[in-house]
Amino acid sequence: MDAYEYTFVKNKTLKLTGVDLNCYKGPQMQRRLQTFLRRSGHSTWPAFFRAIQSDAEKLAEFRDFLTINVSYFFRDAEKWKCLQELILPELLRGHPKLRVWSVGCSRGHEPYSLAMLLIEATSFYRPNQILATDIDGSALAWAQAGGPYSAEEVAHVPPALLDSYFVQDNGYWVNNRLQRKITFRQHNLLAEPFIPSDAGESGYDLIVCRNVVIYFTAEVKEKLYRRFYEALRPGGILFVGGTEIIPKAPDMGFEAVSMSFYRRNDALQDSRLKSQGRSIPA
Ligand SMILES: C[S@@+](CC[C@H](N)C(=O)[O-])C[C@H]1O[C@@H](n2cnc3c(N)ncnc32)[C@H](O)[C@@H]1O
What we know:
Layout: H1 3-17, H2 26-40, H3 45-52, H4 56-67, H5 77-92, E1 99-103, H6 109-121, E2 129-134, H7 137-145, H8 159-165, E3 166-168, E4 172-174, H9 176-179, E5 182-186, E6 204-209, H10 218-231, E7 232-240, H11 249-252, E8 254-258, E9 261-264, H12 266-275
Parallel strand pairs: 1-2, 1-6, 2-5, 6-7
Antiparallel strand pairs: 3-4, 7-9, 8-9
S-adenosylmethionine is lined by residues 67-71, 75, 104, 106, 110, 134-136, 139, 187-190, 210-212, 241.
């Protein structure tokens, strides 16, 4: 795809889907787009866009393809074990209720996994707040309906949790008790202000953003990590995907706690500002 054609595709895509391809790694996205066009049966991009602009189903399919919403419960089981055994107990110490944000939650596997662990760690009645957001409205509708999920998607759910929180009826569905624990909202991470936690300025205790920014350019990722830092309370944790590493994390004020877990550490940020001769914000 030449630069002129890619600019045309980027403009049309933004207009029709709200997805800004400038934020995505170019060569990787272009390869994927070419494959998608071939499979769509259209030979040119103008023909493709003409066909999808008045076809809501095809448009949704294109948006799904761009945003990639593959997921499953307790993805990277060993990281969830670390969350359960190390991170959550620490976060819960001295904090009667946790404010959690699952960013890019897809069809709900991640926030429901979080909700199960939180109920098990505290109690069903503890008023923890779990906000789950995604750009993809159809993925959110699926999440809000609580299913159905396939046997593969629930394969890593521990049997006791599967018994307590799921019902089987042509697939697996999370039960109403669990559904009620989560607030789902459509939100475009790249275009909208971050949603403040219900505690306002003090920020989230835990932000989970896994396998979402991997497709974005290095500059966009850095900007987002800095915004996550701001959205966390001091001492709050950012939980990233199994293959994701935050480059220059200490420069942003993040302390690596364990693989995939970063803590907002204001002392790091303060000493960085001091070493640059800049004043520390009050
Ligand atoms: C691969 S899934 C990851 C799901 C889950 N976090 C996990 O790790 O299994 C990526 C999700 O990010 C969402 N996403 C992509 N771009 C986004 C954006 N700009 N704003 C919000 N969500 C976005 C997609 O719709 C998709 O559901």
